[in-house]
Amino acid sequence: MAINFDKALGVHQFTLGIRAERAEVISSNIANADTPHYKARDVDFAAAMQNAQSQQQQRQQLERDGGQSQFGLAELTGQHVKFRVPNQPDTGDGNTVDIQQEQSAFMQNALEYQMSLGFLDSKFSGMKKALRGD
Question: What is the pTM of this model?
Answer without folding.
Answer: 0.79
